[in-house]
Amino acid sequence: MIYSLTLIVLSLAVTLFGSSVFTNGIEWIGKRFKLSHGATGSVLAGIGTALPETLIPLIAILLGTGQAEKEIGTGAILGAPFMLSTLTLPLVGSGVYFFAMRGKRTGRLHLNFHEIAFDLKYFLISFSLAIAATAIPNRLIHYLTGFFLFGLYAWYLKIILNRPSDDHLDLDPLYFQKLFKKDGSMAVLLQTLAGLGLIIGGAYYFIQGIVQIAQFFHVSPMILSLLITPVATELPEKFNSLIWISKKKDHLAISNITGSMVFQSTFPVSIGLFGTPWIFDHHGISNIILTLVASLCLFAVLFFRKKIEPYHLMLGFMAYLGYIFILIFY
Fold first, then answer.
1. Are 301 and 308 in contact (CB under 8 A)?
2. CA atoms of 223 and 214, how far apart (whole Å)
3. Is the dihedral of CA 318, 324, 329, 330 positive or negative?
4. What CATH number has the domain spanning 2-164+182-329?
5. How far apart are CA 300 and CA 296, in angstroms?
6. Which range, 2-6, 21-25, 93-97, 250-254, has the best average confidence (pLDDT)?
7. Which residue in 100, 111, 103, 135 sits closest to 38, CA to CA?
8. CA nearest to 45, candidates 283, 323, 269, 255
């Protein structure tokens, strides 16, 4: 138990440091390629920080040989968007108030609300399609849905990357600049890859520590992958977004999360549709419903009010608490 706790603490520190290195590199890549803040956050940061939780279902489903691996893979696929909408967004909302109380920023969000609503719309469409496929136990339908989701994400990328660039002023110096004597493209790329490697490595060992503790308490594979594992794999999004929130880069912070949600509802879900029966018990169904409710509520606020406040982001935490109640008593 002491070894597992030590492993968790050390891996947490590595992930935090890697997130700082990665966010700095991502900002410089966005500047180099003249990308909008939305494209930098939703695509570059979104896909990069989604790698840890994407690797788990890929390995579990494609390389696993038993039912437990399939359950872990399926649970990880459902758990990622659930954690993003019910834990990561609320954490960022509370982070705004925390840094505002410390005098580092204001208590209001400054971002492109239209672009955030666009991300949420694509997430709701893709995740709803994937869940609708569960009602049709036909492998051909599952394959067609999976390929359609691949195409939907490709179309999403096309729209995001064609957005006009905005200014990338107020950037911190590139961390690797001292090593390379200048902030050239090679330094930017190597720093971003180094940060990503630290994130993946830290998340991996964090998961190992969590798994060891969960096994000690005899937690089932499905519950572990639905509730515990995503807490670890979503650490990059949490840390990156909090770093950006502290620096008043709100759009990068929020689009990192919503962009990850779009990615998680398309690519990993397609793997689940291809490699598993795609059938869920009441725990999985509850997870799906709460994810959709939390995301739909935030989208509704954006649709009707054309803006969001930090406390709107925090409302999704009620769905997280509700799911814990379901797991304990049902």
1. yes
2. 10
3. positive
4. 1.20.1420.30
5. 6
6. 93-97
7. 111
8. 255
91-143 per-position pLDDT tens digit: 999 999 999 999 989 999 988 899 999 999 999 999 999 889 988 889 999 99
Q: How far apart are CA 53 and CA 234, in angstroms?
A: 7
**Which pLDDT score is estimated for 57?**
67
Burial tier of 255 (Cβ tally within 10 Å: 0-12, 13-18, 19+): buried
Per 3-state DSSP, the chain is made up of helix, strand and coil in percentages (nearest 5) of 80, 0, 20
Domain boundary assignment for the chain: 2-164+182-329
b (16+ CB within 10 A) / e for 161-179: eebeebebeeeeebbbeee
Query: pTM score, two decimals?
Result: 0.80
Cα radius of gyration rounded to whole Å, the chain: 19
